[in-house]
Amino acid sequence: MPDTGQEFSFKVLTINTHKGFAAFNRRFILPELRDAVRTVGPDVVFLQEVLGTHEKHSQRFENWPVVPQYEFLADTMWADFAYGRNAVYPDGDHGNALLSRFPITLHQNLDVSVEGTEKRGMLHCVLEVPGRSLSLHMICVHLGLREAHRHEQMLQMSRFIETLPADAPLVVAGDFNDWRLRANDILHKEAGLEEVFTKTQGRPARTFPARFPLLRLDRIYVRNARISEPTSLANQPWSKLSDHAPLAVEIHL
């Protein structure tokens, strides 16, 4: 359709997939997770801790997909996907991924690891909306466990965001591990980002552990966009599908 200049909106969802296993790795639940994500109907899905390959798991579990987990989750619902491999080990690899109903015209996985710690990456994707002269910038992240490392990673992220077009719509989402609630101030000051739950409810949503959420670890940040209906999916079936509750929000441009 032609670009009429009318408002455009789309829904995003972010979830730490826990490599396709329920809490404590008791059960392989990737097919159930795919069904649950479909019921929300997001246009863009941010995934953390998603497996690319795992040789032992593929031999152990009968219903293990023959394609990478992110491709299995995308299936026929999300026409395009991108994967940023961060951690590599003898049996396989995992990282962040983005599923999109819109074409992904560019994607790059940027290393934000701090020396001497586990590998962390920042997956940046540019999406084109058919029929509109509009580029959407998406960044999927999973930050480190130590506060000093997260601080450095957020500064690296902010420096990268400075290189993007100043007026471009931007969504940054993922598992920030920010249990001390430092990220909002840093990312607002350094990158002009606003956290969607803080904007509407005064603070980030509780997301961990999913069954009884206490810690506010997961976030969705926006720039050059308005938002509505931020939702934390902490109820069933979600509480049985990951150790993190997913977050969703409607983005308006």
Summarize the structure.
This protein is α+β, with helices and mostly antiparallel strands and 253 residues long. Helices cover 21% and strands 35% of the residues.
How would you explain this protein's 3D organization?
It is a single chain. This protein has one domain: Deoxyribonuclease I, Chain A, CATH 3.60.10. The chain has 6 helices and 12 strands. The chain has helices at residues 30-40, 55-60, 69-74, 147-161, 183-191, 196-201; strands spanning 9-16, 44-54, 80-89, 92-100, 104-111, 121-128, 135-142, 170-175, 194-195, 218-223, 226-232, 247-252. The strands form 2 sheets. It has a 6-stranded mixed beta sheet with strand order 3-4-2-1-12-11. Strands 5-6-7-8-10-9 form a 6-stranded mixed beta sheet. Helix 1 links the parallel strand 1 (9-16) and strand 2 (44-54). The radius of gyration is 17 Å and the shape is globular. The mean pLDDT is 92.
